[in-house]
Amino acid sequence: MDKKIIEGFEHVRYERPQLSLEEMTLRSEQFYREMDQRRTVREFDSRPVPIELLENIILTASTAPSGAHKQPWTFCLISDPAIKKKIRDAAEEEEKISYSSRMPDQWKSDLKPLGTNWEKPFLEEAPYLIVVFKQSYGMENGEKVQHYYVNESVGIACGFLIAAIHQAGLTAVTHTPSPMNFLSEILARPFNEKPYLLIPVGYPKAETYVPDIKRKSLDEIIKRF
Hints:
Strand order of the largest sheet: 3-4-8-7
Protein name: Nitroreductase
CATH class: Alpha Beta
CATH superfamily: NADH Oxidase
Distance between the termini: 39 Å
Organism: Algoriphagus yeomjeoni
InterPro entries: Nitroreductase, Nitroreductase-like, Nitroreductase/BluB
Number of helices: 8
Mean pLDDT: 96
Radius of gyration: 20 Å
Keywords: Flavoprotein, FMN, Oxidoreductase
Strand content: 15-25%
Largest sheet: 4 strands, antiparallel
Helix content: 25-40%
Low-confidence stretches: none
GO molecular function, one term: oxidoreductase activity
Number of domains: 1
Order of helices and strands: EEHHEHHHEEEHEHEH
Structural class: alpha+beta
């Protein structure tokens, strides 16, 4: 691959195969059709998942763009039953408070069609939990390193992560108990990392049901200029 120095920094030539318009259109439609089958699943089978699958999924998430290429994320991959139980216990404690006093009635009403409540058995049932942490700043040789657009960068990486989970044939649920500080304590993460998202991952149970909900149409989500 050719290299070139631009403003004092080494660059490499970027090459991507040129596809026909027909192939590009087909790929875009196929990917949409595949991702349109993605659903949030809260009932997991106990079958083990090869760790290579999870490692490839996390590597895919790490290809996301980030501010100044600082890659301000850490992915904690958890299969230890004892740690999963600790996380479930702590999450349910926070969720019970949220459902009883923190969440307004409108929020709880909006959640009713989804069948959620403070109980989160999937935090133990799923073979893996992925906890995504955002790095507010980096640390190199004991010194702070500035990070940029952290929330945006980690959010994009989580989108890649969710897509990769589905593409691999697995299912997931995005869980955001609030507050989530207990995850930092249980997993002993450093001060510069803050919990961002908790994602149980695995195969769905043989007989799994999800809410009969519809996604917005293209005309509802796009404005052409």
